[in-house]
Structure formats: structure tokens, C-alpha cells
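Predict structure. Input: PadR family transcriptional regulator, 191 residues.
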Amino acid sequence: MSATRLLVLGVVRMEGQAHGYRVGRALLSWGAEEWANIKWGSIYHALRKLSQEGKLREFVAEGDEVVDRTSYSITEDGVAEIHRLLRRGLTRRDDPAMLFAAVTLMTSLPRGEVVDLLRRRLELLEKTSGELLPSESRGEPGHVRELFNLWRGTIDADIQWTRNLIASLRAGEYTMADDAPDAFGLPPAES
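Output follows.
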């Protein structure tokens, strides 16, 4: 649910206000049903739950009454929740969907903060990789070693990907929150 929470909050924030169908269309256009297991029901459940928690504000926008729909805008608590979830997603290694959601919205944070968060993630990955014992020393059957080989290969690939992303960010790639007010994931610019 954390990835769904982050994505739903992120879409509402970047749209300024949105109803459930609009949130769902945005997430599906990003392919989130594949990498975050987003479904229509989970979107509407998240909207209701986040509203109950005070992270979103429900209201009837102009035209909503005609089609009996509810629109949402983000609250200050909702923005704080986005930042909390982004920081969690960019530093932990135990929730791939959360990482995917956090990478999608990372541009809504300042560049230096994202680099620092990814460096913490890299340290955790390197520590985990260093703690892996050669599989032969555990005494498991030979075919079970393949699981440990897969684990090591996955961690090594994650380490390399994280290093590459840090290098890209340090090189100035991607428009981040401290680069421009129209960075992806930020609310619409005030006119």
C-alpha cells in the first residue's frame, strides 16, 4: 500500500486537484499497473483512506455534482507524507514497488537530498553484499546455491544501478525541485 499511497498523493499534488478517474489515468499512463501493482480499486481505496487520515481534502469541484464524483487536493500533512515515503523508498532495499514509485517522483525533491538518500541506499546494499557468505560454506545442496547466486547478482545489479543514478544526478540530469518550479511531481506553478 505504501507505493500506492505515494503515487496517489504524488498525482493529486502534481495535478493540484484531481478525482479518482484522473488519478487512475495518470498512473496507468505511467505503466504503474505493471511495476507497482496499481489497480482501480486500490486507487479509490487509497483516496478514501488518505482523505480520512487528513492527507487529502475531499471537495466537489465545478461539474463534479453532475457526475456524482469527488475531487481531492493535498494537505500539508499529505505533502509531509509524500516526503516521508520518498525518503523511505529511496533508501530501503526491501520493497521494490516502493523504490519504483520513489524514483518516479524523486524529481519533486532537491537534487542534493536525492543524491544523499541514494548514497545511504548504496551503503546498505554494499553492506548486504559484503555480508553474503560464499554459498558453499553453508552446506546447502548444490541446486539451492543458485538462489544465493541470484540474490548476489540482484544485489550487485542494484548497486551498479544506484551508482549510475547517483552519477546521472551529479551530472545534472533530470529537472529536480530545486532546478525549476515545473519539475515532474511538483504542484502546478502559481499563475
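Residues 122 and 162 are 6 Å apart (CA to CA).
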